[in-house]
Amino acid sequence: MEEGKDPVAVTRTGQTRALPQRLLKLLVLFLGLCSTFSVVSIYMIRYFGVNSVVTSVRPTLLPCNNEALSLDQWIKPPMNLMHKMSDEELFWRASFVPRVKKYPFQRVPKIAFMFLTKGPLPLAPLWERFFKGHEGRYSIYVHSLPSFEADFPSSSVFYKRQIPSQVSEWGKMSMVDAERRLLANALLDISNEWFVLLSESCIPLYNFSMVHNYITRSKYSFMGAFDDPGPYGRGRYNDNMLPEVNITDWRKGSQWFEINRKLALYIVEDTKFYPKFSEFCKPACYVDEHYFPTMLTIQAANLLANRSITWVDWSRGGAHPATFGGSDITEVLFKKIFEGHNCLYNDKPSSICYLFARKFSPSALEALFLLAPKFLGF
């Protein structure tokens, strides 16, 4: 230190000079952070969208979003049917029921057509013709093998209508799981009021308006549920199902059904009967023939018509109904399908008993297309 200088003054002078340098470094660091944040934000907005960025950066802003709190968020069906919910999560979400029965908006009830398939829909062109011009009155859901990737064009009614699926096997609980999965996904659309289960080999027997009127004006849901005292009915019952299921309640019916929203909710929310059937109804007890008919007979027998609206031909014998190829599609076959039937519709005799028919092979498509205007009405 130079002689005669105050040491305190020297220290203060050094601090004074160091202060601007520190401020300059902090300013440079701050500007660098701002630039980095801006670059990252621009990248995220470009690739993920504004809403995603806002939600991820400031989650507390979401409740203040007017759109998120609007009624449309509750009544619009999912734009994308693919989701990551487990079955447990899906069934829980699908079981939501409004307690106020009067809808505060104009609701147009729809029919959900649910296709349970292994993969392709070879008869899709016929169904395309059936649905044409009736948008807003139906919904479509497809459950296929999870490995199957559909290639329907964007103009198709089947475009992006696949739901998250799992492997299902005939006669086993996995088949019932697939049917419940279809119902649960369809229930997410609050406008779906009726639910029809179909296969890739099914065809409609009438035009859309006729089918729509028949289903929507019926007082009952169309599920077969009859008491079969023989070996293929009560003979499949297991005493371990007591006390939930008594043998007097044991029913058998067709896998292919039509039910209303109330019955669909019974199926999706069921935890009482499902465990019993899962454990004690295994081949040669075919669960898809007994679970829904028995459960719904116990819970809502008065809502069932106790018949199916899907025609099949069992006259050839065997464990499976007859399959019809191109050479089988004749006027004689259609007369067999349409004529000679008697049933009850809204408690009155009717000769129109079936709205759909199966099993038709891919080779039948061309002949069906040619004869559809004359016999099917579309």
From TrEMBL:
The chain crosses the membrane at residues 26-49. One of its GO terms (molecular function) is glycosyltransferase activity. It comes from the Eukaryota. GO terms for cellular component: membrane. It is a single-pass type II membrane protein. The keyword Transmembrane applies. It is found in: Membrane. InterPro entries: BC10-like (IPR044174), Glyco_trans_14 (IPR003406). This is Core-2/I-branching beta-1,6-N-acetylglucosaminyltransferase family protein. It comes from Sesamum alatum.
